[in-house]
Design a protein that fits this description.
Length: 582
Protein backbone atom coordinates (compact mmCIF):
# COMPACT_ATOMS: atom_id res chain seq x y z
CA UNK A 1 0.00 0.00 0.00
CA UNK A 2 1.58 3.26 -1.09
CA UNK A 3 0.34 6.06 1.10
CA UNK A 4 2.66 8.92 0.19
CA UNK A 5 2.89 8.58 -3.59
CA UNK A 6 0.17 8.96 -6.19
CA UNK A 7 0.16 8.79 -9.99
CA UNK A 8 -1.88 11.67 -11.39
CA UNK A 9 -1.39 11.35 -15.16
CA UNK A 10 -0.08 8.75 -17.60
CA UNK A 11 1.37 9.14 -21.07
CA UNK A 12 2.11 5.56 -22.09
CA UNK A 13 4.59 4.24 -19.54
CA UNK A 14 5.63 7.78 -18.54
CA UNK A 15 3.67 9.36 -15.75
CA UNK A 16 3.18 12.43 -13.60
CA UNK A 17 2.64 11.96 -9.91
CA UNK A 18 3.27 13.48 -6.54
CA UNK A 19 5.06 12.58 -3.35
CA UNK A 20 2.47 13.46 -0.76
CA UNK A 21 4.60 15.55 1.59
CA UNK A 22 2.86 18.39 3.54
CA UNK A 23 3.85 20.45 0.47
CA UNK A 24 3.48 17.84 -2.31
CA UNK A 25 6.49 17.28 -4.60
CA UNK A 26 5.33 16.81 -8.19
CA UNK A 27 7.09 14.03 -10.09
CA UNK A 28 9.11 13.35 -12.17
CA UNK A 29 11.43 15.16 -9.79
CA UNK A 30 15.03 15.72 -8.81
CA UNK A 31 14.87 14.54 -5.24
CA UNK A 32 18.32 15.29 -3.67
CA UNK A 33 16.79 17.80 -1.24
CA UNK A 34 13.96 15.50 -0.22
CA UNK A 35 15.91 12.45 0.98
CA UNK A 36 16.90 11.21 4.40
CA UNK A 37 19.31 8.32 4.01
CA UNK A 38 19.40 5.86 6.93
CA UNK A 39 22.53 4.42 5.38
CA UNK A 40 24.02 1.13 4.35
CA UNK A 41 24.05 -1.81 6.72
CA UNK A 42 27.29 -3.19 5.32
CA UNK A 43 29.52 -1.18 7.69
CA UNK A 44 27.39 -1.02 10.82
CA UNK A 45 23.84 -1.35 12.14
CA UNK A 46 21.67 1.70 11.38
CA UNK A 47 18.96 3.30 13.45
CA UNK A 48 15.74 4.57 11.92
CA UNK A 49 14.82 7.98 13.37
CA UNK A 50 12.21 7.55 16.12
CA UNK A 51 9.93 10.16 14.54
CA UNK A 52 10.79 10.30 10.82
CA UNK A 53 10.09 13.52 8.96
CA UNK A 54 6.98 13.53 6.75
CA UNK A 55 8.53 16.03 4.33
CA UNK A 56 11.44 13.76 3.41
CA UNK A 57 11.64 10.38 1.72
CA UNK A 58 13.27 8.09 4.29
CA UNK A 59 15.66 5.67 2.60
CA UNK A 60 15.41 2.62 4.83
CA UNK A 61 18.59 0.86 6.05
CA UNK A 62 19.73 -1.32 3.19
CA UNK A 63 22.43 -3.42 1.63
CA UNK A 64 23.20 -2.46 -1.94
CA UNK A 65 24.74 -5.02 -4.31
CA UNK A 66 26.97 -4.57 -7.33
CA UNK A 67 25.52 -5.56 -10.68
CA UNK A 68 25.89 -9.29 -11.35
CA UNK A 69 25.51 -10.43 -7.72
CA UNK A 70 23.99 -13.90 -7.44
CA UNK A 71 20.31 -13.71 -6.35
CA UNK A 72 20.99 -16.31 -3.62
CA UNK A 73 23.50 -13.90 -2.05
CA UNK A 74 21.09 -10.97 -2.34
CA UNK A 75 18.33 -13.04 -0.72
CA UNK A 76 20.62 -14.05 2.16
CA UNK A 77 21.35 -10.42 3.03
CA UNK A 78 17.85 -9.12 2.30
CA UNK A 79 16.59 -6.50 4.76
CA UNK A 80 12.88 -6.71 5.59
CA UNK A 81 11.61 -3.12 5.57
CA UNK A 82 9.93 -2.03 8.82
CA UNK A 83 6.38 -0.68 8.72
CA UNK A 84 6.71 3.07 9.27
CA UNK A 85 4.00 5.69 8.90
CA UNK A 86 6.03 8.22 6.92
CA UNK A 87 7.26 8.38 3.31
CA UNK A 88 9.75 5.55 2.83
CA UNK A 89 11.92 4.13 0.07
CA UNK A 90 13.46 0.66 -0.12
CA UNK A 91 16.70 -0.12 -1.93
CA UNK A 92 16.17 -2.98 -4.37
CA UNK A 93 17.80 -4.62 -7.36
CA UNK A 94 15.96 -5.78 -10.51
CA UNK A 95 16.33 -9.40 -9.30
CA UNK A 96 14.96 -8.83 -5.82
CA UNK A 97 12.32 -6.21 -6.67
CA UNK A 98 8.94 -6.99 -5.08
CA UNK A 99 6.13 -5.24 -3.24
CA UNK A 100 7.74 -4.17 0.05
CA UNK A 101 4.91 -1.76 0.99
CA UNK A 102 7.08 1.33 0.65
CA UNK A 103 6.17 4.48 -1.29
CA UNK A 104 9.29 4.47 -3.44
CA UNK A 105 11.98 2.07 -4.62
CA UNK A 106 15.61 2.84 -5.34
CA UNK A 107 17.51 0.77 -7.88
CA UNK A 108 20.88 -0.03 -6.37
CA UNK A 109 22.77 -1.61 -9.23
CA UNK A 110 22.72 0.98 -11.99
CA UNK A 111 24.63 3.84 -10.43
CA UNK A 112 28.04 3.38 -12.08
CA UNK A 113 27.27 2.46 -15.65
CA UNK A 114 24.21 2.06 -17.83
CA UNK A 115 25.57 -1.17 -19.32
CA UNK A 116 24.24 -2.69 -22.54
CA UNK A 117 20.97 -1.03 -23.68
CA UNK A 118 18.94 -4.26 -23.81
CA UNK A 119 20.05 -5.35 -20.33
CA UNK A 120 19.27 -1.90 -18.95
CA UNK A 121 15.75 -1.93 -20.47
CA UNK A 122 15.11 -5.47 -19.23
CA UNK A 123 16.27 -4.51 -15.73
CA UNK A 124 13.94 -1.50 -15.60
CA UNK A 125 10.99 -3.47 -16.99
CA UNK A 126 11.64 -6.33 -14.56
CA UNK A 127 11.72 -3.84 -11.71
CA UNK A 128 8.63 -1.94 -12.85
CA UNK A 129 6.50 -5.05 -13.18
CA UNK A 130 7.66 -6.34 -9.76
CA UNK A 131 6.83 -3.24 -7.71
CA UNK A 132 3.31 -1.79 -7.36
CA UNK A 133 2.36 0.49 -10.29
CA UNK A 134 1.46 3.29 -7.90
CA UNK A 135 4.87 3.45 -6.23
CA UNK A 136 7.71 5.75 -7.32
CA UNK A 137 10.92 4.46 -8.86
CA UNK A 138 14.17 6.33 -8.17
CA UNK A 139 17.17 5.85 -10.45
CA UNK A 140 20.13 7.33 -8.56
CA UNK A 141 23.37 8.78 -9.86
CA UNK A 142 22.75 8.58 -13.60
CA UNK A 143 20.50 11.35 -14.90
CA UNK A 144 21.88 13.85 -17.40
CA UNK A 145 19.99 16.40 -19.52
CA UNK A 146 20.46 14.04 -22.45
CA UNK A 147 19.13 10.79 -20.99
CA UNK A 148 16.47 12.13 -18.64
CA UNK A 149 13.60 12.06 -21.17
CA UNK A 150 14.21 8.40 -21.99
CA UNK A 151 14.17 7.42 -18.32
CA UNK A 152 10.92 9.31 -17.79
CA UNK A 153 9.49 7.57 -20.88
CA UNK A 154 10.39 4.22 -19.26
CA UNK A 155 8.36 5.14 -16.17
CA UNK A 156 11.10 6.31 -13.76
CA UNK A 157 9.96 9.08 -11.42
CA UNK A 158 12.88 10.27 -9.29
CA UNK A 159 16.40 11.42 -10.14
CA UNK A 160 19.27 13.32 -8.55
CA UNK A 161 22.00 15.78 -9.57
CA UNK A 162 24.95 13.50 -8.72
CA UNK A 163 26.03 12.85 -12.31
CA UNK A 164 25.47 16.48 -13.35
CA UNK A 165 27.64 17.77 -10.49
CA UNK A 166 30.41 15.19 -10.96
CA UNK A 167 30.55 15.83 -14.70
CA UNK A 168 30.77 19.59 -14.09
CA UNK A 169 33.56 19.25 -11.55
CA UNK A 170 35.44 17.13 -14.07
CA UNK A 171 34.99 19.83 -16.73
CA UNK A 172 32.20 18.24 -18.79
CA UNK A 173 29.49 20.63 -19.95
CA UNK A 174 26.09 18.92 -20.31
CA UNK A 175 23.35 19.79 -22.75
CA UNK A 176 20.27 17.81 -23.91
CA UNK A 177 22.18 17.07 -27.13
CA UNK A 178 25.23 15.59 -25.41
CA UNK A 179 28.26 15.96 -23.15
CA UNK A 180 30.99 18.45 -24.17
CA UNK A 181 34.51 18.73 -22.66
CA UNK A 182 34.91 22.38 -21.65
CA UNK A 183 38.20 22.68 -23.51
CA UNK A 184 36.38 21.93 -26.78
CA UNK A 185 33.96 24.84 -26.39
CA UNK A 186 34.77 28.23 -27.91
CA UNK A 187 31.85 29.88 -26.16
CA UNK A 188 29.13 28.89 -23.71
CA UNK A 189 25.98 27.92 -25.66
CA UNK A 190 23.62 28.70 -22.76
CA UNK A 191 22.13 31.73 -21.04
CA UNK A 192 21.65 30.35 -17.53
CA UNK A 193 23.08 32.55 -14.69
CA UNK A 194 26.22 30.39 -14.38
CA UNK A 195 27.00 30.84 -18.06
CA UNK A 196 26.81 34.66 -17.95
CA UNK A 197 30.61 34.89 -17.52
CA UNK A 198 33.12 34.67 -20.38
CA UNK A 199 34.42 31.18 -21.06
CA UNK A 200 37.95 31.94 -19.80
CA UNK A 201 36.50 32.79 -16.35
CA UNK A 202 34.11 29.80 -16.33
CA UNK A 203 35.20 27.38 -13.58
CA UNK A 204 34.38 23.72 -13.11
CA UNK A 205 32.13 24.75 -10.18
CA UNK A 206 30.24 27.06 -12.60
CA UNK A 207 30.04 24.10 -14.97
CA UNK A 208 28.50 21.94 -12.23
CA UNK A 209 25.88 24.63 -11.54
CA UNK A 210 25.16 24.99 -15.25
CA UNK A 211 24.71 21.21 -15.49
CA UNK A 212 22.17 21.28 -12.65
CA UNK A 213 20.32 24.18 -14.31
CA UNK A 214 20.19 22.31 -17.62
CA UNK A 215 18.99 19.12 -15.95
CA UNK A 216 16.19 21.05 -14.26
CA UNK A 217 15.24 22.79 -17.52
CA UNK A 218 15.08 19.44 -19.27
CA UNK A 219 12.95 18.02 -16.46
CA UNK A 220 10.46 20.89 -16.88
CA UNK A 221 10.34 20.38 -20.63
CA UNK A 222 9.89 16.61 -20.38
CA UNK A 223 7.17 17.05 -17.75
CA UNK A 224 5.31 19.33 -20.14
CA UNK A 225 5.58 16.73 -22.92
CA UNK A 226 4.18 14.03 -20.63
CA UNK A 227 1.37 16.34 -19.51
CA UNK A 228 0.40 16.97 -23.14
CA UNK A 229 0.71 13.25 -24.02
CA UNK A 230 3.55 13.89 -26.50
CA UNK A 231 6.59 12.38 -24.78
CA UNK A 232 7.06 9.91 -27.64
CA UNK A 233 7.07 12.72 -30.22
CA UNK A 234 9.88 14.43 -28.30
CA UNK A 235 11.83 11.24 -27.72
CA UNK A 236 11.91 10.10 -31.35
CA UNK A 237 14.01 13.22 -32.04
CA UNK A 238 15.90 13.37 -28.76
CA UNK A 239 17.36 9.84 -28.76
CA UNK A 240 19.02 10.46 -32.10
CA UNK A 241 21.81 12.46 -30.43
CA UNK A 242 23.15 9.35 -28.74
CA UNK A 243 23.74 5.81 -29.98
CA UNK A 244 23.09 4.15 -26.59
CA UNK A 245 19.74 5.94 -26.26
CA UNK A 246 18.75 5.10 -29.84
CA UNK A 247 19.62 1.45 -29.30
CA UNK A 248 17.70 1.30 -25.99
CA UNK A 249 14.70 3.05 -27.54
CA UNK A 250 14.60 0.57 -30.44
CA UNK A 251 15.10 -2.39 -28.15
CA UNK A 252 12.06 -1.26 -26.18
CA UNK A 253 10.04 -0.97 -29.40
CA UNK A 254 11.05 -4.45 -30.48
CA UNK A 255 9.94 -5.89 -27.11
CA UNK A 256 6.81 -3.84 -26.96
CA UNK A 257 4.50 -5.64 -24.50
CA UNK A 258 5.55 -3.29 -21.70
CA UNK A 259 4.66 -0.24 -23.83
CA UNK A 260 1.56 -1.81 -25.36
CA UNK A 261 0.01 -2.54 -21.99
CA UNK A 262 0.47 1.11 -21.02
CA UNK A 263 -0.66 2.76 -24.28
CA UNK A 264 -4.29 3.96 -24.34
CA UNK A 265 -6.56 2.72 -27.13
CA UNK A 266 -7.50 6.30 -28.00
CA UNK A 267 -6.90 9.87 -27.01
CA UNK A 268 -7.77 13.26 -28.37
CA UNK A 269 -4.19 14.45 -28.92
CA UNK A 270 -2.57 13.77 -32.25
CA UNK A 271 1.00 12.68 -32.83
CA UNK A 272 3.63 13.20 -35.46
CA UNK A 273 5.09 10.28 -37.36
CA UNK A 274 8.25 11.56 -38.99
CA UNK A 275 10.94 8.98 -38.30
CA UNK A 276 11.42 5.32 -39.12
CA UNK A 277 10.83 4.62 -35.42
CA UNK A 278 7.31 6.05 -35.84
CA UNK A 279 6.44 2.87 -37.75
CA UNK A 280 6.82 0.97 -34.46
CA UNK A 281 4.54 3.20 -32.41
CA UNK A 282 2.00 1.12 -30.50
CA UNK A 283 -0.85 3.28 -31.83
CA UNK A 284 0.18 2.34 -35.38
CA UNK A 285 0.99 -1.35 -34.92
CA UNK A 286 -2.21 -1.85 -32.90
CA UNK A 287 -4.33 -0.24 -35.67
CA UNK A 288 -2.68 -2.42 -38.32
CA UNK A 289 -3.17 -5.55 -36.25
CA UNK A 290 -6.85 -4.82 -35.64
CA UNK A 291 -7.49 -4.09 -39.33
CA UNK A 292 -6.20 -7.57 -40.15
CA UNK A 293 -7.77 -9.48 -37.26
CA UNK A 294 -11.01 -7.62 -36.50
CA UNK A 295 -12.10 -5.71 -39.59
CA UNK A 296 -14.43 -7.30 -42.15
CA UNK A 297 -15.61 -5.56 -45.32
CA UNK A 298 -19.41 -5.70 -45.67
CA UNK A 299 -19.70 -3.94 -49.03
CA UNK A 300 -20.16 -6.02 -52.18
CA UNK A 301 -18.70 -3.22 -54.31
CA UNK A 302 -15.26 -2.96 -55.94
CA UNK A 303 -12.25 -2.07 -53.80
CA UNK A 304 -11.06 1.44 -54.71
CA UNK A 305 -7.53 2.10 -53.49
CA UNK A 306 -6.60 5.77 -53.12
CA UNK A 307 -3.68 7.70 -51.59
CA UNK A 308 -4.19 9.21 -48.14
CA UNK A 309 -4.30 12.96 -47.62
CA UNK A 310 -2.49 15.29 -45.23
CA UNK A 311 -5.82 16.67 -44.04
CA UNK A 312 -7.78 14.47 -41.64
CA UNK A 313 -10.24 12.92 -41.72
CA UNK A 314 -9.36 12.09 -45.31
CA UNK A 315 -12.92 12.70 -46.55
CA UNK A 316 -12.58 16.38 -45.70
CA UNK A 317 -9.52 16.85 -47.93
CA UNK A 318 -9.68 18.37 -51.38
CA UNK A 319 -8.30 15.26 -53.06
CA UNK A 320 -10.80 12.91 -51.42
CA UNK A 321 -13.70 15.21 -52.30
CA UNK A 322 -12.66 14.84 -55.94
CA UNK A 323 -12.36 11.05 -55.55
CA UNK A 324 -15.81 11.00 -53.99
CA UNK A 325 -17.29 12.89 -56.96
CA UNK A 326 -16.05 10.11 -59.23
CA UNK A 327 -16.82 7.15 -56.95
CA UNK A 328 -20.27 8.36 -55.79
CA UNK A 329 -21.01 5.46 -53.40
CA UNK A 330 -20.22 2.79 -56.00
CA UNK A 331 -16.90 1.60 -54.59
CA UNK A 332 -15.42 0.78 -51.19
CA UNK A 333 -12.74 3.41 -50.65
CA UNK A 334 -9.60 2.23 -48.85
CA UNK A 335 -6.77 4.71 -48.31
CA UNK A 336 -3.12 3.75 -48.37
CA UNK A 337 -0.94 5.63 -45.91
CA UNK A 338 2.47 5.55 -44.37
CA UNK A 339 2.89 4.95 -41.53
CA UNK A 340 -0.68 3.85 -40.74
CA UNK A 341 -1.12 1.33 -43.56
CA UNK A 342 -4.57 0.44 -44.88
CA UNK A 343 -7.56 2.53 -43.83
CA UNK A 344 -11.06 1.41 -44.92
CA UNK A 345 -13.49 4.33 -45.34
CA UNK A 346 -15.55 3.24 -42.29
CA UNK A 347 -12.56 3.76 -39.98
CA UNK A 348 -11.40 7.19 -41.12
CA UNK A 349 -12.53 8.72 -37.82
CA UNK A 350 -11.20 5.90 -35.65
CA UNK A 351 -8.10 6.57 -33.58
CA UNK A 352 -5.44 7.17 -34.80
CA UNK A 353 -6.64 7.53 -38.43
CA UNK A 354 -7.48 11.21 -37.97
CA UNK A 355 -4.86 11.89 -35.29
CA UNK A 356 -1.48 11.44 -36.96
CA UNK A 357 0.56 13.89 -38.95
CA UNK A 358 3.36 12.85 -41.26
CA UNK A 359 5.73 14.24 -43.86
CA UNK A 360 4.23 14.05 -47.34
CA UNK A 361 7.10 14.00 -49.83
CA UNK A 362 5.88 11.29 -52.16
CA UNK A 363 9.16 9.44 -51.57
CA UNK A 364 8.74 6.04 -49.98
CA UNK A 365 11.55 4.05 -48.41
CA UNK A 366 11.83 0.41 -49.46
CA UNK A 367 11.01 -0.53 -45.85
CA UNK A 368 7.74 1.45 -46.04
CA UNK A 369 6.86 -0.11 -49.40
CA UNK A 370 7.50 -3.62 -48.10
CA UNK A 371 5.58 -3.12 -44.88
CA UNK A 372 2.50 -1.50 -46.41
CA UNK A 373 2.33 -3.86 -49.40
CA UNK A 374 2.42 -6.82 -47.01
CA UNK A 375 -0.47 -5.31 -45.07
CA UNK A 376 -2.42 -4.64 -48.27
CA UNK A 377 -1.81 -8.15 -49.54
CA UNK A 378 -3.11 -9.66 -46.27
CA UNK A 379 -6.05 -7.25 -46.31
CA UNK A 380 -7.07 -8.27 -49.86
CA UNK A 381 -6.70 -11.94 -48.97
CA UNK A 382 -8.95 -11.70 -45.93
CA UNK A 383 -11.72 -9.61 -47.52
CA UNK A 384 -13.66 -10.50 -50.65
CA UNK A 385 -13.93 -8.05 -53.53
CA UNK A 386 -15.19 -8.62 -57.09
CA UNK A 387 -12.42 -6.42 -58.50
CA UNK A 388 -9.87 -3.77 -57.55
CA UNK A 389 -9.57 -0.24 -58.92
CA UNK A 390 -6.21 1.26 -58.03
CA UNK A 391 -6.47 5.04 -58.21
CA UNK A 392 -2.92 5.64 -57.06
CA UNK A 393 -0.11 7.81 -58.45
CA UNK A 394 3.02 6.30 -60.00
CA UNK A 395 5.95 5.68 -57.65
CA UNK A 396 5.65 4.33 -54.11
CA UNK A 397 1.86 3.97 -54.07
CA UNK A 398 1.78 2.04 -57.33
CA UNK A 399 4.75 -0.10 -56.24
CA UNK A 400 2.82 -1.03 -53.10
CA UNK A 401 -0.30 -2.08 -55.03
CA UNK A 402 1.67 -4.03 -57.64
CA UNK A 403 3.66 -5.85 -54.98
CA UNK A 404 0.56 -6.60 -52.90
CA UNK A 405 -1.51 -7.95 -55.82
CA UNK A 406 1.15 -9.84 -57.78
CA UNK A 407 -0.17 -13.22 -56.60
CA UNK A 408 -3.84 -12.19 -56.47
CA UNK A 409 -6.38 -13.48 -59.00
CA UNK A 410 -8.76 -10.55 -58.48
CA UNK A 411 -8.99 -8.33 -61.61
CA UNK A 412 -7.24 -5.00 -61.12
CA UNK A 413 -7.47 -1.77 -63.09
CA UNK A 414 -5.16 1.24 -62.75
CA UNK A 415 -6.97 4.53 -63.40
CA UNK A 416 -4.36 7.24 -62.82
CA UNK A 417 -2.65 9.02 -65.68
CA UNK A 418 0.18 11.18 -64.29
CA UNK A 419 -1.77 12.55 -61.30
CA UNK A 420 -4.78 11.19 -59.35
CA UNK A 421 -6.60 14.54 -59.63
CA UNK A 422 -6.10 15.06 -63.37
CA UNK A 423 -9.43 15.22 -65.25
CA UNK A 424 -8.44 12.15 -67.28
CA UNK A 425 -7.64 10.12 -64.14
CA UNK A 426 -10.89 11.12 -62.43
CA UNK A 427 -12.86 10.25 -65.57
CA UNK A 428 -11.13 6.85 -65.70
CA UNK A 429 -12.18 6.25 -62.09
CA UNK A 430 -15.78 7.20 -62.89
CA UNK A 431 -15.77 4.96 -66.00
CA UNK A 432 -14.33 2.01 -64.09
CA UNK A 433 -17.43 2.08 -61.86
CA UNK A 434 -19.99 2.79 -64.61
CA UNK A 435 -21.76 -0.58 -64.33
CA UNK A 436 -21.76 -0.69 -60.51
CA UNK A 437 -24.95 0.23 -58.57
CA UNK A 438 -24.86 2.82 -55.77
CA UNK A 439 -25.10 1.74 -52.18
CA UNK A 440 -27.64 3.46 -49.99
CA UNK A 441 -27.04 6.01 -47.23
CA UNK A 442 -28.32 3.48 -44.70
CA UNK A 443 -25.90 0.81 -45.93
CA UNK A 444 -23.02 3.26 -45.67
CA UNK A 445 -23.92 4.35 -42.13
CA UNK A 446 -24.78 0.85 -40.88
CA UNK A 447 -21.61 -0.73 -42.27
CA UNK A 448 -19.53 2.04 -40.74
CA UNK A 449 -21.14 1.53 -37.31
CA UNK A 450 -20.65 -2.24 -37.59
CA UNK A 451 -17.02 -1.86 -38.71
CA UNK A 452 -16.22 0.43 -35.78
CA UNK A 453 -17.87 -2.02 -33.35
CA UNK A 454 -15.83 -4.88 -34.86
CA UNK A 455 -12.66 -2.82 -34.53
CA UNK A 456 -13.47 -1.90 -30.94
CA UNK A 457 -14.96 -5.11 -29.53
CA UNK A 458 -13.94 -7.91 -31.92
CA UNK A 459 -14.82 -9.30 -35.34
CA UNK A 460 -18.62 -9.79 -35.55
CA UNK A 461 -19.55 -7.52 -32.64
CA UNK A 462 -21.02 -5.09 -35.17
CA UNK A 463 -23.57 -7.72 -36.29
CA UNK A 464 -24.49 -8.55 -32.70
CA UNK A 465 -24.91 -4.93 -31.62
CA UNK A 466 -26.43 -3.34 -34.70
CA UNK A 467 -29.07 -5.24 -36.69
CA UNK A 468 -32.62 -4.03 -37.27
CA UNK A 469 -31.59 -0.75 -35.72
CA UNK A 470 -32.34 2.92 -36.22
CA UNK A 471 -29.38 5.13 -37.08
CA UNK A 472 -29.54 8.79 -36.11
CA UNK A 473 -27.00 11.22 -37.54
CA UNK A 474 -26.18 13.23 -40.63
CA UNK A 475 -22.87 11.93 -42.04
CA UNK A 476 -22.43 8.98 -39.70
CA UNK A 477 -24.60 7.18 -37.15
CA UNK A 478 -24.10 9.29 -34.06
CA UNK A 479 -26.73 7.47 -31.97
CA UNK A 480 -28.04 3.96 -32.61
CA UNK A 481 -31.27 2.47 -31.27
CA UNK A 482 -33.36 -0.67 -31.40
CA UNK A 483 -35.78 -1.12 -28.49
CA UNK A 484 -33.62 1.42 -26.65
CA UNK A 485 -30.43 3.35 -27.36
CA UNK A 486 -27.48 0.97 -27.88
CA UNK A 487 -24.50 3.27 -28.27
CA UNK A 488 -23.21 6.75 -29.08
CA UNK A 489 -20.38 7.33 -31.52
CA UNK A 490 -17.69 9.70 -30.21
CA UNK A 491 -16.48 11.36 -33.42
CA UNK A 492 -13.28 12.69 -31.80
CA UNK A 493 -12.09 9.09 -31.25
CA UNK A 494 -14.18 7.28 -33.86
CA UNK A 495 -15.22 4.78 -31.16
CA UNK A 496 -18.48 3.93 -29.41
CA UNK A 497 -19.59 4.47 -25.86
CA UNK A 498 -22.19 1.88 -24.84
CA UNK A 499 -25.43 2.32 -22.96
CA UNK A 500 -26.54 -0.30 -20.43
CA UNK A 501 -28.74 -1.74 -23.16
CA UNK A 502 -25.72 -2.03 -25.48
CA UNK A 503 -23.58 -3.44 -22.66
CA UNK A 504 -26.21 -6.10 -21.95
CA UNK A 505 -26.17 -7.15 -25.61
CA UNK A 506 -22.41 -7.80 -25.40
CA UNK A 507 -22.45 -9.28 -21.89
CA UNK A 508 -22.00 -13.05 -21.91
CA UNK A 509 -21.52 -12.99 -25.70
CA UNK A 510 -18.58 -14.60 -27.46
CA UNK A 511 -16.95 -11.17 -27.58
CA UNK A 512 -14.58 -10.87 -24.73
CA UNK A 513 -15.59 -7.37 -23.80
CA UNK A 514 -13.68 -7.14 -20.56
CA UNK A 515 -15.65 -7.33 -17.33
CA UNK A 516 -14.18 -5.87 -14.15
CA UNK A 517 -15.38 -7.42 -10.89
CA UNK A 518 -15.94 -4.93 -8.11
CA UNK A 519 -16.68 -5.12 -4.41
CA UNK A 520 -19.94 -4.82 -2.57
CA UNK A 521 -20.94 -1.26 -3.57
CA UNK A 522 -22.86 0.74 -6.15
CA UNK A 523 -20.34 2.92 -8.05
CA UNK A 524 -21.09 6.62 -8.32
CA UNK A 525 -19.24 8.36 -11.16
CA UNK A 526 -16.12 6.26 -10.92
CA UNK A 527 -14.60 3.07 -9.53
CA UNK A 528 -11.38 3.62 -7.58
CA UNK A 529 -8.59 1.05 -7.85
CA UNK A 530 -9.05 -0.32 -4.28
CA UNK A 531 -12.67 -1.19 -5.21
CA UNK A 532 -11.54 -3.51 -8.03
CA UNK A 533 -11.59 -7.19 -7.06
CA UNK A 534 -10.33 -8.50 -10.39
CA UNK A 535 -9.72 -7.13 -13.86
CA UNK A 536 -8.71 -8.94 -17.07
CA UNK A 537 -5.10 -8.41 -18.18
CA UNK A 538 -6.35 -7.37 -21.63
CA UNK A 539 -7.88 -4.05 -20.52
CA UNK A 540 -6.13 -0.97 -21.84
CA UNK A 541 -6.72 2.62 -20.81
CA UNK A 542 -9.61 3.97 -22.89
CA UNK A 543 -11.33 0.58 -23.36
CA UNK A 544 -15.06 0.23 -22.85
CA UNK A 545 -15.51 -2.11 -19.89
CA UNK A 546 -18.40 -3.80 -18.15
CA UNK A 547 -18.43 -3.64 -14.37
CA UNK A 548 -20.04 -6.39 -12.33
CA UNK A 549 -20.45 -6.51 -8.56
CA UNK A 550 -22.91 -8.07 -6.09
CA UNK A 551 -24.89 -4.79 -5.95
CA UNK A 552 -24.45 -3.28 -9.42
CA UNK A 553 -23.90 -3.78 -13.12
CA UNK A 554 -22.32 -0.84 -14.92
CA UNK A 555 -20.56 0.26 -18.09
CA UNK A 556 -17.76 2.78 -18.39
CA UNK A 557 -14.32 3.58 -19.73
CA UNK A 558 -11.07 2.22 -18.29
CA UNK A 559 -8.66 4.86 -17.04
CA UNK A 560 -5.92 2.32 -16.26
CA UNK A 561 -4.81 -0.98 -17.77
CA UNK A 562 -6.22 -4.16 -16.20
CA UNK A 563 -3.02 -5.06 -14.32
CA UNK A 564 -2.69 -1.52 -13.01
CA UNK A 565 -6.26 -1.36 -11.69
CA UNK A 566 -5.77 -4.69 -9.96
CA UNK A 567 -2.44 -3.79 -8.33
CA UNK A 568 -2.96 -0.11 -7.47
CA UNK A 569 -4.15 1.13 -4.13
CA UNK A 570 -4.96 4.64 -5.38
CA UNK A 571 -6.52 6.44 -8.31
CA UNK A 572 -9.54 6.23 -10.60
CA UNK A 573 -9.67 2.86 -12.38
CA UNK A 574 -12.90 3.30 -14.37
CA UNK A 575 -15.06 6.26 -15.32
CA UNK A 576 -18.59 4.96 -14.94
CA UNK A 577 -21.20 6.08 -17.47
CA UNK A 578 -24.32 4.08 -16.59
CA UNK A 579 -25.15 2.01 -13.51
CA UNK A 580 -27.89 -0.53 -12.87
CA UNK A 581 -28.56 -1.43 -9.23
CA UNK A 582 -29.09 -5.14 -8.67
ZN1 LIG B 1 24.26 27.39 -18.49
Amino acid sequence: MTKYFEVTHRDGSARLGKLRFPTPLPTPAICDDFLYNSGSLWATEKEIPSSPSIDKLLILPHRGFPSGTEPILEDAFFVEPPDIDSPTAAVISPKTASDLHTDAYILSTTSHSLGPPNKFCNDIIQTKISIPPDSALYLPGIATPQNLSFFVYLGIDLFDTTRAVLSGLQGTYLLPTGDYPLENLDELPCHCPSCSVSIDKFTNEDCATHNINTLKNELSLVTQYVRSNRIRDYLEGQVRHNTWLTAAFRYLDSNSHYLEQRTPVARTEGFIATTEDSLNRIEITRFQERILTRYKNRFTHPLVLVPCSAKKPYSKSKSHRFFHQSIRFRGHKVSISSPLGIIPQELELTYPAQHYDTVVTGNWSSDEINRISKLLSQYIESNSYPNIIAHVPPGGYRDIVELATKNSSIPIEYTVVAHPLSPESLQNLDNALSLVPHYSRRERMLYQAQAIADYQFGNGAGDLLFTDCTLKGKYFARRIFDTDQIATLLPEYGLFSLTLHGANKLKNSKFNIPTVTIDNFVPQGSVLAPGVVSAPETIRSGDEVLVQGPLAFAVGRAIMSGPEMQQSSRGVAIDIRHVQKL
